[in-house]
Amino acid sequence: MRRASGRSAKRARRPRRPLPALRRPHLSKEHARLVRVAARARRRAYAPYSQFPVGAAVLASDGTVYAGCNVENASYGLALCAERVAIHTAVANGRRRLTAVAVVGPAGITLTPCGACRQVMEEFGVQNVILASPRGAPTLVAFPALLPSPFPQVAARGRHAGL
């Protein structure tokens, strides 16, 4: 269908501008390594229900890298996100200070961590999140842009006194 003026009835869409907090810089060697580890972890994802494999890798403050992938379950509430699997693996190995997380999802999708993963990242001091897919340039996001108002951390002693 064409308008009387000769222009198409369909409006041309404006290209979306990335959010100001998202940057596509040249990644440091450490961050590039995180993306590679997360991409490998993605291949090990157990996602028979969603067919949506995700891999993640976390960088501890001492330079150690831990990988994780999403693990689904027939009872959907029991599924685990790749980011939390990687973070919990780091914690299980004695790491408490984490500086960066890379997340790799399917091609063509801009994937960001869910709210639960963001809160867990806050708990362990993550400063940067790298969002990537098997193709395309990764995006570096400053963590506060993803979770501007986290739940406050309360000293474990006061919260669980007497337990």
From TrEMBL:
Could you name the active-site residues? 83 (proton donor)
CDD domains, alphabetized: cytidine_deaminase
Return the Gene3D superfamilies for the record.
Answer: Cytidine Deaminase, domain 2
Gene Ontology cellular-component terms for this entry are: cytosol
Which reaction does this chain catalyze?
A: 2'-deoxycytidine + H2O + H(+) = 2'-deoxyuridine + NH4(+); cytidine + H2O + H(+) = uridine + NH4(+)
Basic residues biased stretches: 1-17
Give binding positions for substrate.
Answer: 70-76
Looking up NCBIfam families in the UniProt record yields: cyt_deam_tetra, PRK05578.1
Protein name (record):
Cytidine deaminase
Organism equals Candidatus Segetimicrobium genomatis
